[in-house]
Specification:
mainly alpha
């Protein structure tokens, strides 16, 4: 295929994908007020009015405030967010709720486009051409279209957070410690995103990045304290702990390891009346074991790997090991997919393991885009629930392929260039 045809095909692909996003995903979301963004908007309005406090973690009280500010048809809670999530919608809090939500959708799409541009820069740092990076991003974006649509449907924040994490990856590749720490700190203090990614600068001795990150968190927390209130921070741990014990975690909308195991083994008369067995101890203990084993294996195998590969392996774990993560969380995987595919393209396909890596990645991409109605109640009974977690399985497969890339035995066969 000539260079002209390749580039024309790439351009047409991008136009088709963005046309789909704008017409089929943004279009139905425009002009509507739904749950999701209205929670952040209400929190910002409470902050401006001086009414923000520990009561935001009282679901009934906060839901009442949401309906006061946005209309009686909308129900949303604040738990389990950090108090600082109220800062996200602060610049838009002066607008009417519908106008603020529409403005946030524009910001979200701009953030997604900027994320793609940042990842092209990451590709250049990894020795990848802009054209190849464009194809890789196109494949990843197509696979994550359901996650993009889920963000736009409710005005969630994860397209913006994905941009922050992509910038942190860029900082790792180009050894810009201030960028790494500042963006990891900002993503964490706003939405507790990217927690495990802090291990990357830690293992690589990037102490300045850790200082930047800690300083960013401290700066935002201290300067917002007079408005958020110390008592609100004190109420946060108890609210999160109570939330993590709710029977609603068994609903397949939460595509996490904890959610799956809770659905399989923990009975709840309202949310989970038909588990395969009422074994709540398994549901409570096994997620912790999986969390320790997967994180430990990633850190042990990746302790001498380059930062981009380790970042790509840890990013899926920041989603699948959460107590709750809905479809819109999975848009954060774009950076991980980009590094994993870039890495695979640099290796010759010589062995069955090489083919297995590509097959696992293909399966992951299909599970991410598969139009499986996993939120349907028909998928929530007994063993059928195993089919109701496609995004979770896809993310675990991305992690598995990234882990294979961390193996030291592959260093001689792969020339991923990082940090030059």
């Amino acid at each position: 295929m000539s260079k002209f045809l390749r580039r024309a095909g790439l351009l047409l692909g991008w136009l088709a994908v963005w046309g789909y996003i704008l017409a089929w995903q943004l279009g139905p979301s425009w002009g509507a007020v739904t749950h999701g963004f209205v929670g952040h908007y209400t929190a910002a309005r409470l902050l401006i009015g001086g009414d923000f406090g520990p009561a935001v973690y009282d679901d009934d009280w906060f839901a009442g405030q949401v309906q006061t500010y946005t209309g009686p048809a909308v129900y949303e809670i604040f738990t389990p967010n950090l108090p600082t999530v109220a800062l996200l919608a602060l610049p838009l809090a002066g607008l009417p709720p519908q106008a603020a939500r529409d403005a946030w959708l524009v910001v979200s799409l701009a953030a997604l486009l900027a994320t793609c541009g940042v990842l092209v820069g990451v590709g250049l740092g990894l020795g990848q051409s802009p054209e190849a990076s464009g194809w890789i991003l196109l494949v990843g974006l197509i696979a994550l279209l359901p996650a993009v649509g889920a963000n736009l449907a409710v005005g969630q924040t994860y397209l913006v957070l994905g941009g922050l994490l992509a910038l942190a990856l860029l900082g790792l590749v180009y050894r810009r410690d201030g960028l790494v720490g500042g963006l990891l700190g900002l993503a964490f203090i706003l939405k507790t995103s990217g927690l495990f990614l802090w291990v990357v600068p830690l293992l690589h001795g990037r102490w300045r990045a850790l200082l930047w990150g800690g300083g960013t968190i401290l700066l935002v927390a201290v300067f917002s304290l007079p408005w958020l209130g110390f008592d609100t921070w004190l109420a946060y741990p108890a609210a999160v702990s109570a939330f993590s014990r709710r029977g609603a975690l068994a609903v397949p909308a939460y595509q996490t390891t904890t959610g799956l195991l809770t659905h399989l083994f923990s009975y709840d008369p309202q949310w989970n009346p038909a588990p395969i067995g009422p074994w709540p101890v398994v549901a409570s203990v096994l997620p912790s074991i999986i969390r320790i084993v997967s994180l430990g294996a990633t850190l042990w195998i990746g302790r001498r790997s380059d930062p981009a590969r380790l970042f790509a392996a840890l990013l899926p774990l920041t989603i699948v090991l959460l107590p709750v993560a809905e479809e819109y969380h999975f848009v954060l995987l774009l950076g991980s997919m980009f590094v994993v595919i870039t890495d695979l393209l640099r290796r010759p396909v010589e062995t069955a393991a090489d083919w297995a890596g590509w097959l696992a990645l293909g399966a992951a991409l299909l599970l991410m885009i598969a139009p499986i109605p996993f939120k349907s109640t028909g998928w929530a009974v007994g063993w059928w629930a195993l089919l109701a977690y496609p995004r979770l399985y896809g993310a675990w497969l991305v992690w598995a392929v990234a882990m294979w890339g961390l193996s030291p035995r592959l260093d001689a066969r792969s020339s991923l260039i990082v940090g030059n």
